[in-house]
Each structure stands twice: as structure tokens, then as C-alpha cells.
Write a structure and sequence with these properties.
Elements: E1 15-16, E2 19-20, E3 109-111, E4 118-120, E5 130-131, E6 135-144, E7 147-154, E8 160-165, H1 173-186, E9 197-201, E10 204-208, E11 213-214, H2 215-219, H3 226-245, E12 248-249, E13 258-261, E14 264-267, E15 274-275, H4 294-297, H5 301-316, H6 338-347, H7 359-378, H8 399-405, H9 416-422, H10 426-433, H11 440-452, H12 456-463, H13 469-481, H14 485-498, H15 503-513, H16 516-525, H17 530-542, H18 546-554, H19 563-574, H20 580-592, H21 597-618, E16 621-625, E17 628-630, H22 632-649, H23 653-666
Antiparallel strand pairs: 1-2, 3-4, 5-6, 6-7, 7-8, 8-10, 9-10, 11-13, 12-15, 13-14, 16-17
Length: about 675
């Protein structure tokens, strides 16, 4: 599978040897793994990257992340390398060690008083030391989970800057085993978002120097801008997706272990990298970030994705108690947009079976959420085709109309019968399905046909035992068809939790709940969902916000097939409970609009009727609307002409007579 376009949202890379050469993920295939609503699993594709993949621009082309200046290596060296006493713990039992006592400072080397394991927090290398006859040490950069990290120059390769990372405690078998395991894994790891390993010398790993700041350092002054946090999440998921494809998990993701230099993000500490099939090796993690099931179920892709959710939460808001009160949970209410909150809650669900299945799936939903957040911030839509849903099928204004208008889940491309049925009219689907081999796709297509033909119970009978998320979608649609908005909202709500980056569940919920916020979020993100604009305008109008409704309808682009309908709806909104300026504006709008004769006359009668009512309450005015002065006599003449014009256009004799009668009733009294 080479030479095809990637298909991941926002990525224009090319697939080579099964993986994208730009984002590092596998190409999208929406029908490969259906979501099980009962467990919270959703469709996903395998994720990974080849070693030759190129990095994409940080921010996925949706947001500009401020670059972090490259830090001169020499300036990064610590002048007095020490581990603070409060951060000294035994590597064997975790007990505090090396603490001050009786006025004396704590020892940097010794034995744990609880388990007698040796400890040492003293740097083993000093300035000028030569490691492996090649790497000249300049000093210490930091102290990590597996020991001191040193800056050195590679005397054999143009004096390039490198980093040496050693073992925390050479006498601790677990620490040494972890270091040796790290060597084995890292020898094959090569990804633009992961620090590059150059060599292994004695007890040290030699890796590239990455000058910049960690996400923890960037976060020190307060929560980071939300679009920036989401952009970081996408880059991290690309790196994790690559590791997962190699059968590895990162284990210890946290803000400290991710560094930004200029416009690039890198995972810089691979000390916890672990093989998925290794059930014996020591597992390293950090309280507040590590998944709760590690002790019982061990490591998994889901446990890695949990750390991504926790890291994003810490970066995005003031997450106090993340390592204590909320060690394995999120606060009840988050100061974040609903879509972001849903994504974080799914990623960090206590049940690993309810989290995202893969880095690719989480990245897909995160991209959709990022599009929504950025569009809401600057008012510019960020549309993108969905890999799970088709386009909006028709225009809907009300929940009843939404049944036939909402986007339909895309059929599984591996099921040709389902693909065939998706292109047929509902009545033809039932006939065709009877002659096809039964499959999940055929069952879903048949259920949809029953719903559109007004038989929601027949659809429920077909779907009641199906745990595919598409079945849940059609159960919600069946409830919507039957007028059960509460049941429909519950079903669509479950889909929205599974797919927080998709517009279709948001739109469906908006119709169920008459939610201006959900309509607005969909419309601001993607102007192809015109039903969101009409639904939002209707809700605003019913709430008395006529001006807001008109603004929304005016935002329907001229390229939309519903542009004229939006303009006529704006005119009707203007004159629903009009002021004088509303009447004048409605008249100007109608004069500028290209309409057929019958539609123009109908709309003109609506405007003039509203004007006549206004004059009855407020008295005449010198202004004119559609050529008629704002006086009772002039408006009645105008209305008479409109109704007579409609009578001439009427095809039904009874309707023609009714229109003429209406014209006669409006004609002012005259002597002629």
C-alpha cells in the first residue's frame, strides 16, 4: 500500500510501506474496526511510522504555536549539580533517603534505612572526562528518573553536541535492567518526534542534544493556550503511534518528558519505554499520570493514551490535586469547551476498554476538536471531510426534518452489499436487501430504510442486539423519528462521547436539545452543515434574538445551494415582530434578491402585512417599503396588488378565488 494519500485530517502526506511519510500514521480506513458502544471502543486504524518519516508542522496547519528558541548547549550546564533533598528516594522501596538530620545535611550516597539498598545522587562524570574515547563531558544537564544526564561533545563527529544518560544506581538490578532494555528498544527507534539515539557506550546512552524547553517549563507561569495544548497532543500521539507500531509503549509521558525546540516537539526521556509483550520488566511511571490499571492489567496502548489525556489536562487548566485528590480522575467540571472535556474524559476513563483504541483514532478525534476550538476563537471555519460520516443529506430546520437530513454513517468499504444499498432510495433498499447475504452493513442499511419510511420500531427490532456505534446512531434516529427526543438525546450523547471531534453527533444532539451552543459550534467549524445555521436561527428567534438569527442566516455563503433560502428566512425573521428599521431592511433585502415571481410575491405579502400591523400600532411614517409608504392606505394598495399577482399565478381555481377575495378585502375604500 504505497503512493496513496494519507487521509488523516489535515495531512497531505503520502503513504509509503503502509505509513504516512509526513504524520507517521497509517492511512484512514473508516470501516475496519467498528465501535462497540457497550465498551466505549470506536473505529480505528493501525498506527505507526517508518524510520524515514518527515515531521509535520507543529499545529497541524490549524494553529501557530510560538517557537521556543534553541538553547545554547554550553549555557544549559548546571554550575552546581545536586539533587534536592526533597527529591531523593530509594530506587528499591521508594522511601525517602539522603535527608538532613540533627542539623547535618543529607548524604548524597549511602544505604536506605528501610531496605538497605545502596543509593547515590552524586554525578559519576565530571568536566573533561572522556567516555568511550569519544565523548568529552562538559557537565550535568539534569537529573532524571534513571540518573544524571550529561552534556558532551562527540570528538569523532565534528564536535557535535550529544547527551549522555547513565543509570540511576548501578547497584540496583531493576535500574540496570531498565537501562539495558532501553538500549535494546532504542536501537531501532527513529522518529522526528522522538529524541535520536546515536550510540551506546559503557553504561551510557548517547543521544542527540535537543535545546529548548520542556512542556513543564512552558507551563510554569500558568495554563497554556488551549489550541497550543491540543497541537502538542497531536504531535505526542504521532510519536506514540510510531512506538505502538513497533510493539512498544512509552509508559512515562508527562510534561517533563516532552520538549519543544523552535517549532518541533520531541519525547526526550525514553527510560520507561517497554515492550508490550514484556511481562517481567520493571514498569516506570509517575503518580498523577500513570493509568490506574497498571498494577492489575499491566501496560497497554490504552494506558499510554491515558497519559496523553492527563498531560493535556495538566497543561490546559489549573489541575490542582492531579497527583492526590484526582490521582485517577478528573474534576467534576472542567473549565474547557465541551468537546475538549469529552475527549479528555474518554482518554482518561478509569476503564481502559472505554478509552481510545489507538493513537490514530485519538489523533483523528483530537484534530476535529482542534478545528472546533480554533474556529470558535477566530470565527473562521475549519472544515474537513469526516472519515466516519457522509455529508448532510438535506436542509433541516426542526427535529422532525432532521431525521432525513442528518449525515449517515459511512458504510464499511469491505462490505460491498452495504455500499450498494447506501445509494438506493429507502423503498428500494428493502426490496434489494431481501436478495442479499445478511451482514452488519445490510442490517444497518435496512434499519435506516425503515426509519425513513416511518417505521422506527422495525428498525429497533433489527438493531437491539447490535453493539456497533452505527447501530446506536440509528437507534437514536429511530427515537427521533418517533418523537422521543429524550431517548434520541441519550443515544446521540453516547456517540458524542465516543466521537467528540465529529460534527454529526453534535448536530443530532443540537436538534434533540434545541441547543444554540451545539448548533453554533457546528456552524462555526464547518459551513457545509447548513441545517446548523437554520436550527440556530430558529432557536435564537424563538428566544427573541431576531438580530442574532439574521446574522446567522446572513453567514450562509453564496456558494451554498441554500443561500437564497437563507436570505428569504432572514427577511421573514426581520418582520416577525418588526421595528421600523426591520421593515425597511426587509424591503431592501427583498428588492436585491433574485426570486421567481410567485416566491417574490409571497414574501412581499409577508413584509407588507407586517408593515400594516406596525402602522396600526405606531401610526404612519414617511419611509417606503417595497414602493409603498408606511401608511395604511398605501400598504393596503400594495397588498392588494400582491394578492392579485398571486391569483394570476395560481393553478388551482379555489386558491385563485381565495386570493382574489383577500385582495378585495384589503383594497382601501375609494370613490371609483
Amino acid at each position: 500500500m504505497s503512493g496513496m494519500r494519507c487521509g488523516q485530517n489535515g495531512c497531505g502526506g503520502t503513504v509509503e510501506d503502509g505509513y504516512c511519510d509526513l504524520c507517521g500514521l497509517a492511512p484512514k480506513n473508516p470501516g475496519t474496526a467498528p465501535v462497540r458502544v457497550a465498551t466505549g471502543r470506536t473505529a480505528s486504524s493501525r498506527t505507526g511510522s517508518t524510520g524515514s518519516s518527515k515531521r509535520g508542522m507543529l499545529g497541524a496547519g490549524l494553529v501557530e504555536v510560538p517557537p521556543v528558541p534553541y538553547k545554547d548547549p554550553a549555557s544549559a550546564v548546571m554550575t552546581n549539580p545536586q539533587v534536592a533533598e526533597g527529591k531523593r528516594f530509594c530506587s528499591g522501596c521508594g522511601a525517602p533517603v539522603g535527608r538532613a538530620r540533627d542539623g547535618r545535611p543529607g548524604r548524597t550516597e549511602g544505604f536506605c534505612s528501610h531496605c538497605r539498598a545502596p543509593y547515590s545522587f552524586t554525578p559519576k562524570l565530571g568536566k573533561g572526562d572522556l567516555v568511550g574515547g569519544q565523548y568529552e563531558v562538559l557537565g550535568c544537564l539534569a537529573h532524571g528518573g534513571l540518573g544524571w544526564i550529561y552534556l558532551a561533545k562527540d570528538r569523532n563527529v565534528s564536535d557535535r553536541w550529544v547527551v549522555l544518560k547513565g543509570v540511576l544506581d548501578a547497584g540496583d538490578p531493576d535500574a540496570r535492567a531498565a537501562a539495558l532494555a532501553e538500549r535494546q528498544f532504542l536501537a531501532t527507534v527513529e522518529h522526528p518526534n522522538i529524541v535520536k539515539i546515536h550510540n551506546f557506550v559503557q553504561d551510557y546512552i548517547v543521544m542527540e542534544y535537543v535545546g529548548g524547553q520542556s512542556l513543564r517549563q512552558l507551563r510554569e507561569k500558568g495554563p497554556l493556550p488551549l489550541p497550543q495544548v491540543l497541537a502538542y497532543g497531536l504531535e505526542i500521539l504521532r510519536a506514540l503511534g510510531y512506538l505502538h507500531a513497533q510493539g512498544l509503549v512509552y509508559c512515562d509521558l508527562k510534561p517533563d518528558n516532552v520538549l519543544q525546540t523552535e517549532e518541533q516537539l520531541k519525547l526526550i526521556d525514553l527510560g520507561g519505554v517497554h515492550a508490550l509483550d514484556d511481562e517481567e520488566g520493571a514498569i516506570y511511571g509517575t503518580i498523577g499520570y500513570q493509568a490506574p490499571e497498571i498494577a492489575d492489567r499491566g501496560l497497554s496502548v490504552a494506558s499510554d493514551l491515558y497519559t496523553v489525556g492527563r498531560t493535556m489536562a495538566v497543561l490546559a487548566f489549573d489541575f490542582r490535586g492531579n497527583a492526590a485528590t484526582f490521582k485517577h480522575s478528573l474534576p467534576d467540571r472542567l473549565p474547557l469547551p465541551e468537546s475538549v472535556e469529552l475527549l479528555l474524559r474518554r482518554a482518561t476513563d478509569p476503564d481502559p476498554d472505554r478509552r481510545f483504541w489507538s493513537a490514530a483514532e485519538m489523533a483523528d478525534q483530537l484534530t476535529g476538536v482542534l478545528r472546533e476550538v480554533v474556529a470558535a476563537a477566530d470565527g473562521n471555519p475549519r472544515p474537513a471531510p469526516s472519515t466516519l460520516f457522509g455529508p448532510e443529506l438535506r436542509l433541516a430546520r426542526t427535529p422532525a426534518e432532521a431525521v432525513a437530513a442528518l449525515p449517515a454513517p459511512l458504510p464499511d468499504p469491505a462490505d460491498p452489499a452495504a455500499t450498494l444499498l447506501s445509494g438506493l432510495a429507502p423503498e428500494h433498499v428493502l426490496t434489494a436487501a431481501a436478495g442479499l447475504k445478511a451482514s452488519p452493513g445490510v442490517r444497518l442499511a435496512t434499519a435506516r430504510a425503515h426509519i425513513l419510511l416511518g417505521a422506527p420500531q422495525a428498525a429497533r427490532d433489527l438493531l437491539v442486539s447490535d453493539d456497533d456505534w452505527r447501530a446506536e446512531w440509528y437507534l437514536g434516529l429511530a427515537d427521533l423519528s418517533a418523537g422521543d427526543l429524550t431517548g434520541a438525546a441519550e443515544a446521540f450523547g453516547r456517540i458524542r462521547w465516543l466521537l467528540p471531534g465529529e460534527a454529526a453527533p453534535q448536530l443530532a444532539l443540537a436538534f434533540c436539545a434545541e441547543s444554540a451552543a451545539l448548533f453554533d459550534a457546528v456552524w462555526k467549524t464547518d459551513r457545509s452543515y447548513v441545517s446548523a445555521a437554520f436550527g440556530l436561527a430558529r432557536v435564537l428567534l424563538e428566544g427573541g434574538d431576531r438580530a442574532g438569527a439574521v446574522v446567522v442566516l446572513d453567514s450562509v455563503p453564496g456558494t451554498s445551494i441554500h443561500y437564497v433560502e437563507a436570505r428569504t428566512a432572514a427577511i421573514s425573521s426581520r418582520v416577525s415582530v418588526p421595528a421600523r428599521d426591520d421593515l425597511l431592511d426587509a424591503g431592501r433585502r427583498l428588492e436585491a434578491l433574485e426570486l421567481d415571481a410567485e416566491r417574490r410575491q409571497h414574501l412581499a405579502t409577508e413584509v407588507l402585512e407586517a408593515a400594516l400591523g406596525w402602522v396600526g400600532q405606531n401610526g404612519p411614517s414617511a419611509e417606503t417599503v417595497l414602493g409603498a409608504e408606511l401608511s395604511e392606505r398605501s400598504l393596503r394598495f400594495g397588498l392588494e396588488g400582491c394578492y392579485r399577482a398571486l391569483a394570476r399565478l395560481a393553478r388551482d381555481p379555489d386558491e385563485r378565488i381565495s386570493l382574489v377575495d383577500r385582495a378585495n378585502s384589503l383594497r382601501p375604500f375609494t370613490l371609483l
